[in-house]
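idk why but the lab printer keeps eating my pages so im just putting this in chat instead. protein + 3,4-dihydroxyphenylalanine:
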Amino acid sequence: MEDKINQLLHEVENFRADALENVEEFRIKMLSKKGHISELFNDFKSLPVEQKKLVGQKLNQLKNFTQEKINHLKQTIEEKSSQQKTSENYSDLSLPVDFNHIGSRHPISIVRNQINSIFEKIGFVISEGPEIEDDWHNFSALNFAQDHPARDMQDTFFVEKDPDIALRTHTSSVQVRVMNNQKPPIRTISPGRVFRNEAISARAHCIFHQVEGLYIDKDVSFADLKHVLNHFAHEFFGPDARIRLRPSYFPFTEPSAEVDVSCPFCKGDGCNICKYSGWVEIMGCGMVDPNVLENCNIDSQIYSGYAFGMGIERITMLKYLVNDLRLYFENDVRFLKQFANAF
Ligand code: DAH
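predcted complex ->
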């Protein structure tokens, strides 16, 4: 009987199979009721007692070894066939394309492109500048006094001190670069990312986007400024939009104003978006301060100009009713895919 056990052990060791059917046949041959191993168990009953211990151990070993071998073979064959199936899927070039995964433009890009195109149509060209700026372009040339609070560490991310290098706090720095490098007439808009040291919340973020506008020529007046802003409001918010200017202060413009647009949601009747005033603030503007022109080597006796600057997040919020600034930066596809049909 021991010989028979060794012979079967050898057979199990050498057994190979590529298909599940073969494994099943082998299992029936060995382990089914009438299989070789089961027959040995029957013969075992009639063995003399002194042989039972040793033969019994060997028989159990054979049975366990056979069962393990069968399980192992089954598992390897199944894994192989599932791998084959996936690679067949990829290699079938005739399968229809899955259109569900087309991305969408980011709402900030959509609105930036709309603003760009409104101004490009009336002769403005796009200019860009660096996000890491020196003190001169971000503050000094723009007439910020040495002790102006915006220069404070609390507002500005400094990269280096003495000489001061910082992440630009507004895109107005680009107007300095343009005026330094070009002769009037200048008609440009500068979209870009800006940085301020703010705690992140629904209403404030340390990164956001602005568009700066600049027009320098002979005889540019405040009426020209008002006209172009009115044109922008009609193009962007629709023909019923109205604007109003409120006196304000910026170091680089004199006079300066804040621009409000009639609330795009309630059309001026009052709602919670405009805090029941009928107006929402959308940008700052003014006539370029003669000091700024002189700082950039433009003769303020001959030339004058206007500038304006708006936050893209804010304008986007008014267009698409986004009420939390953090949504713009989290790249949550559930938010982003809502803009799949916008351009
Ligand atoms: N730079 C201003 C800011 O970041 C925005 C601004 C206001 C730009 C008035 C201008 C302007 O060009 O004339 O708050």
